[in-house]
C-alpha cells in the first residue's frame, strides 16, 4: 500500500504506518473558536437574477483526522449541488445543478497560522474504476426521488451505462467517513443506506447494505432490512469505527418510515453496529430531544462510548424558536440490542416477534409505531414507557457541547466532528455548496444572520467536561 506523504513533512516509517515528526518546517496549530474556513473554488454561476455562485469544496458532510499524519484531516462531500423541487411540482424530486458531479474526499492540512489548506482530492469510483455520481440508485436503495435538471427537465445522464437514465446504481449521497491506517476508507450514505469500502484511490472494494439480493454484498453480510425504510434524504448520516478497528458503527439521521411513511416524524432513531469480519449486527435506539431533529455524526471514544451530533436545520439569528446544535456523549453499554439477532430479548417476552422486512415487533407493531402511537405528550413519553416496560432501553446520553449557548453557532448543518483530545473537539458544518432552494424550482445563495454567505468552517471548541 502506498501512502501519501506531504512534501513539507518529515516522516519516520513505523512498520506499515507513518507518523509526522515535530519541527519548525511542519508545525501547525488548531484554529480557535472563531474558526477557519475551508478553501473553495467557484464552479460557476447560475443565470438567475442573483447570479448564484456554486462553490466547489463543500467538504462538510463528515470530518475525520488523518490516522497517521498529525495536523492533517479529511473532509467529505455529499452528492453535489442540489435542491428540493418546489412544493407544487409533480412528481416531486431533487434538482441536480451539476448531475455529473462526483462525490469526493478532500485531504487538508493545518498551517502554522491555524488555517486549512487543501492538499489533494480523491474522487469516488465504482468497482470498475469509473467515477460515480450523486444521482439516486434505481434498484438497490432507490428513494423515489425524481432527478431534475435546473431547467425543469428530467436528468438524462446514464453514468453507469445500464440504460436507466437519471440514475446511478453506484451513486452515493455520501455522509459518514472513516479513514483507516491502511489508507482505505469506509463511507456511509443516505440512499441504501450503503456502507462502502474504498481503496486509497477511491475505488470501491466492497459494500454492505440492507438488500440481500445485491450481489455486491458478501454472502450473508447485510445491514438489517428495516434500515431500507429510511425516508428520502434521511439515511445513515454518521459512521465511525471502534478503536480496535473491528466494528463499524452507523447512525441513522432520523426515524425510519417503518413500516410506512404514515409513521411521520418522531423522536426515535437507530444506531447499528457491524462486525467487519463476521458481519454480525446489533441495533440500539436513540431518543432525540424532539421529533424532527437530525443525528448527523457519530465518533467513537471507546468500544461502547461515542459522541453524536443532534441538531435541527434552523439558523441562529434568522429562525425563531429554540435552535438546537448539540453534541451528546452516549453509551451503548446499558442499552438494549433490538436487532433480530437478539433471540434472548424475544424469548423473555411473548409480545416480541420478528418480521423479515421490519425487524423487531411489539404485538405486531414496529418499534417506530409503538412510539408514534404514544402520542406527542411529553415527547412521545407513553410510547417510550411501553418499550421500557418490555425491557427495551435507549442509549444513555449526556450533553457534551451546546454550540448555540457556547458560540452562537451560525450555521444550519453541524455535520463533522473530530475528537482531538479529552478537552478539544473540532466541528465542521455542511455549507451545501453555498446554495439553498428558493421554493420556486430554482436556487439562491445561502446566507447567515450577519449577511455573509455561508462557508465550510472548522472550529475547535472545549466540551463541557473532559470527554474521557
Characteristic key phrases:
468 residues, 32 strands, Phytase-like domain-containing protein, 35% strand, 5% helix, mainly beta, Phytase-like_dom, four-stranded antiparallel beta sheet
Structure description:
By secondary structure, this protein is mainly beta. It has one domain. The chain contains four helices and 32 strands. Strand 8 and strand 9 form a beta hairpin. The two termini are 33 Å apart.
Write down the overall mean pLDDT.
93
**How many beta-strand elements?**
32
Proportion in β-strands: 25-35%
Number of domains: 1
The biggest beta sheet is recorded as: 4 strands, antiparallel
Q: How large is the radius of gyration?
A: 21 Å
Strands, helices and their partners?
Layout: E1 11-14, E2 17-20, E3 36-37, E4 41-45, E5 53-56, E6 62-65, E7 72-76, E8 82-84, E9 93-96, E10 104-110, E11 116-123, E12 146-148, E13 174-179, E14 185-189, E15 195-198, E16 204-208, E17 236-241, E18 247-252, E19 268-275, E20 281-287, E21 294-300, E22 305-311, E23 325-331, H1 343-347, E24 352-355, E25 359-362, E26 365-366, H2 367-372, H3 381-389, E27 396-402, H4 403-407, E28 414-421, E29 424-429, E30 435-437, E31 443-445, E32 457-461
Parallel strand pairs: 9-12
Antiparallel strand pairs: 1-2, 3-32, 4-5, 6-7, 7-10, 8-9, 10-11, 13-14, 14-15, 15-16, 17-18, 18-19, 19-20, 21-22, 22-23, 23-27, 24-25, 25-26, 28-29, 29-32, 30-31
